Amino acid sequence: MIRAYIVLAALFGLTGVALGAFASHALKSQLSAAYLAVFQTGVQYQMLHALALLGVALLSLHRPGRLLTAAGALFVAGILLFSGSLYLLTLSGIGKLGMITPLGGTSFLAGWLCLALAGWRIRS
């Protein structure tokens, strides 16, 4: 899983930068200010959790375990569900997609909890 998490972290970082630039340039005149802010929220959370996923992968090199594997999987799910639903919502205008967003947020929270528990179990 370590290799997969590093590759996914890099791809999420790459697409986060690309989507942020896309929003700043191409979408600025296409979306309302409110929808542009929603899109940028998706980008921010994607970038933050791409870095968190990279941290999980690097920590897993030294302290592999189920909690770190779960944290990584939950961060991936969170990016796809939270950020993905925000992107789709703003680009399609389908408001019902916003019902998916909290599932992604819950995935992020669970991922951070797994990471905290994994850290708690590390002995000095």
Summarize the entry for a quick read.
This protein has 124 residues and is mostly helical.
Overall tally of structural domains: 1
Structural class: mainly alpha
The count of strands amounts to 0
Number of helices, where a helix is a run of at least 4 consecutive DSSP H or I residues = 4
Main sheet makeup: none
Estimate the helix proportion, in percent.
over 70%
- Spans where pLDDT lies below 50 across 5 or more residues: none
Beta-strand content estimate: under 5%
The arrangement of helices and strands along the chain is HHHH
Mean pLDDT across the residues is: 96
How far do the termini sit from each other? 25 Å
Membrane topology: Multi-pass membrane protein
Pfam family, one: DUF423
Keywords: Membrane, Transmembrane, Transmembrane helix
Transmembrane segments: 43-61, 68-88, 100-120
Task: Outline the structure in words.
It is a single chain. The protein has 124 residues and is mostly helical. The protein has one domain. It is built from four helices and no strands. It has helices spanning 2-25, 33-62, 66-92, 101-121. The chain is elongated and about 55 Å long. It starts with a helix and ends with a helix.
